[in-house]
Design goal:
A seven-stranded mixed beta sheet has the order 3-2-1-4-5-7-6. It is globular and about 45 Å long. It is an alpha/beta fold and 237 residues long. The model is unreliable at 1-7 (pLDDT under 50). Helix 6 links the parallel strand 4 and strand 5. The chain has a single domain, classed as Vaccinia Virus protein VP39 (Rossmann fold, 3-Layer(aba) Sandwich). The chain contains eight helices and seven strands. Helix 1 crosses helix 4 (97-109).
Amino acid sequence: MDPSRPHRSVVSFVRRSTRMNESQAAAWERYRDRFVVAVPQAERNTSIAEDAVVDWDAAFGRRAPRIVEIGSGGGDSLVPMAAARPEVDFIAFEVFAPAVASTLGRLGREDITNVRVVMADGAQGLAQLFDDASLAELWTFFADPWHKARHHKRRLVSTNLADVAATKLEAGGLWRLATDWEDYALWQREVLDAHPRFENLHPGWAPRYDARPVTKYEAKGLAAGRTTRDLTYRRLP
């Protein structure tokens, strides 16, 4: 291995095109300074420097309960859910620039002030950018299922992520998950049911989280005959 080349750690996503359409480009230019929190990068453009820190009180101009979403996409669910809870601050991790631009446009049009977006690896950001026991909730909705067995190591939900989540969530904090792929749903439940610092709030699957709207992505899965399964775990003291 060439030591001069950056180490490529396994991540739960694959970079896609960063090309924006006209409306996305306009939203990016208009709103990025308002909503995007820049963090120092490491070698990969989605990785975070080891010494990176964020003053979230300063980023929002207040201190409030905080929720992190990893993989917020185009904000189809994040934006209405944040609008419904103005007393809470939301930090969204998303690596795809067109999706972030779409989110920024929605936030700007609806004059929502309680969301900030970080364009970086969400699992790494969760570990590095938050104090211990500082988060009220963690959301991982419709993460990439990585179907092939040889790719399971890329799945976002893992024992390692659960260890980090248990550290960053406050006692009693919630981890909400949803997926429309049965094998990934079973994987998530197996991983988290076995974790000593989380308890499943429901026997088996959770009822659908009413606050989460049906997005175009989820509707497409439902139309294809897939079933959405929700899970809710509470961080134990």
